Amino acid sequence: MALAGGYRNNNYQEESIYNLIPKIQERPPKEPRYRSTFTKTVKQDTSSFRQSNKTMGPPKVVTHQPDEFLKKHSKEPKLPDKKPFRYEDETKRRPAVPKHSEKPLMGIRSNKNFITTNAVENIMSVPKKPEKKFADTRDGSTHPLTPSGLTPKYTQKKDYGKTPQYLERRKAETERAQADYDSYIQERMRQGAMKQMSYGERQAIIDGLKKNWEDLHHQYQGLSVVTDTAPKKARKERMEAEMKQLERDIDMIEKHQVIYLAN
């Protein structure tokens, strides 16, 4: 139906014979029901962890004899046997105050100077180290630091008392190098390229070097104290250098027990 104003209102439809034909209402398709992805897992866990007698109790209840009925005080806890009471500080107590009927010992005198004795004890005593403490409140409440666990204790480490790994590796490398060196020496000796110096030869060389050092030292002591000329100074320096070289040679030979000589 057309309205005045030159436009058509959408709320009103035009009259048509087709509107008399009943129309079938089409319902939108229903969305599938939601199913969790863990349904199978829950069913399997329920069936595997299901325990019998969980809510209904055991199938057969143990019955008691007629004379085993609940008796008086049977559910009360049993207390330990009575013991005589003693204070914890009983052994540390001071002796009791003497009674008025007890008379003290009279006539005992001591020549000990307590002032001097106390002064000497305080002077000779070792000062006590202050105890380590920590404060955990703003009011200054202190507690011992050692048992608190705030400071590391190296004696409680898992590897305490064990050889470090780098020392084990260094030891293995040293042993391997020594084994390679020994095999090399044996191979060279087998080929005849070197030989080992005997103990007698080594001792003879050491004795000869010491004898040369003694002779050179005797000459050195005979030098003039005043080195006012160039020849005197040069001779003194040359003798000192020779003595130092002899000392190095002696130390080197004495340090090595085994010496190899190349042919």
UniProtKB/TrEMBL annotation:
Polar residues compositional bias, start-end: 36-55
Residue ranges constituting the Enkurin domain according to the UniProt record: 169-261
Family matches, as PROSITE patterns: ENKURIN
Keyword hit for Nucleotide-binding: no
The entry's keywords: Cell projection, Cytoplasm, Cytoskeleton
UniProt xrefs under InterPro entries: Enkurin_dom, Enkurin_domain-protein
Region (Disordered): 23-104, 126-174
Entry GO CC: acrosomal vesicle; axonemal microtubule
GO molecular function: calmodulin binding
Chief site of localization: other
Cell membrane found in the keyword field: no
Annotated Basic and acidic residues bias: 24-34, 65-103, 128-141, 156-174
Localization annotation: Cell projection, Cilium; Cytoplasm, Cytoskeleton
Name of the protein in question: Enkurin domain-containing protein
